[in-house]
Design a protein that fits this description.
Layout (H helix, E strand, L loop, with lengths): L8 H5 L2 H4 L21 E5 L3 E2 L11 H14 L5 E7 L2 E6 L1 H9 L4 E7 L3 H15 L4 H14 L4 H8 L3 H9 L5 H8 L5 H8 L4 H13 L4 H44 L4 E4 L5 E4 L5 H10 L4
Parallel strand pairs: 2-4, 3-5
Antiparallel strand pairs: 1-5, 3-4, 6-7
Helix pairs in contact: 3-4, 5-6, 6-8, 7-8, 10-12
Length: 303
């Protein structure tokens, strides 16, 4: 009998799946294995897992996914994915799609997973919340996730804040991103802009000016502070213009009223005077009879 001990070092380096390679249960992927029964982790065949239709992440960086796959080849799956059981040998992802996709690229056939029981709404809520908390989502993906939690899970903003560990103001700031033009939203998605840039741009009401500042920010790679300064200058200029215009309107109104009073006194009847910013308008002099009309015409020296 040989005294040589089995070499398990490489198996440890390759993750949980490698530790179980010699298990008699390896051909029964949907069965709880003795080694993992206490932790509630299953070894499930990748072919038995469906992707998550409620996945908040839409775009996966190919290079980052390949890097994760290379890491999995060496280290194995460090954190199990989470799935729900649909039927015998049929599962659906709740969270961990990056690990799931990277495992396929790494050539794995099985993956460790926590199995939960959930209906569609619970599935959606768990998927969104777990991904928001665990994955490196961009600001727009978080905003869409928040919106879905509010709309499809019937949560209020206060409840949503409690679920994701954020205050109402933070939640609202993300939701406001969805009001930005599609061009700016795409830039946030592609990480050309950060959350700070977007929050500043939200405060520009005029879409054309908003897009102009956005274009300048991207082309010149402006910092968040510089974008905030541009927006502040724009809004302060607008306020000064509005204040100045209100002052002019007040003076104009006073002058028009004064002229109306003089005309009414001159013709002995109520006179309506209207004028726009370009000093175009009209004067209306009402009369009540032919005699009254002749009186006004005499004043005008027409007859």
């Amino acid at each position: 009998m040989s005294d040589q001990k089995p070499n398990r070092k490489n198996a440890l380096g390759r993750g949980l799946g490698a530790l179980l390679e010699d298990s008699p249960a390896k051909n029964k992927p949907t069965e709880i294995l003795p080694e993992v029964a206490k932790t509630g982790i299953f070894e499930i065949s990748l072919e038995e897992i469906q992707v998550n239709p409620y996945q908040p992440r839409i775009h996966f960086d190919k290079d980052a996914l390949q890097e994760l796959a290379e890491s999995i080849k060496v280290q194995g799956i460090i954190q199990p994915i989470t799935v729900r059981k649909l039927a015998p040998n049929e599962y659906q992802l709740i969270s961990g799609e990056r690990r799931f996709q990277a495992s396929k690229l790494a050539g794995l056939t099985q993956i460790p997973a926590y199995v939960r029981t959930a209906n569609d709404q619970q599935m959606l809520e768990m998927a969104l919340i777990e991904n928001i908390q665990r994955e490196n989502l961009n600001a727009l993906e978080i905003a869409h996730s928040y919106q879905r939690l509010l709309a499809e899970c019937n949560l209020k903003q206060e409840e949503l804040g409690d679920r994701v560990g954020k205050n109402r103001t933070t939640v609202n700031n993300y939701l406001r991103l969805l009001k930005l033009p599609p061009t700016i939203q795409a830039a946030i998605r592609d990480q050309q802009l950060f959350m700070g840039h977007a929050r500043a741009l939200i405060n520009v009401e005029d879409v054309e000016k908003q897009l102009a500042i956005f274009k300048k920010a991207v082309e010149e790679e402006l910092s968040v502070r510089k974008v905030e300064a541009l927006v502040k200058a724009l809004n302060e200029g607008k306020q000064e213009k509005e204040t100045s215009q209100k002052g002019l309107d007040h003076v104009r109104k006073y002058e028009i009223n004064k002229i109306q009073q003089r005309l009414a006194s001159h013709f002995g009847t109520k006179v309506a005077l209207k004028a726009d910013e370009k000093n175009r308008g009209e004067i209306k002099i009402p009369f009540n009879s032919a005699t009254d009309l002749n009186r006004i015409l005499e004043i005008l020296e027409i007859i």
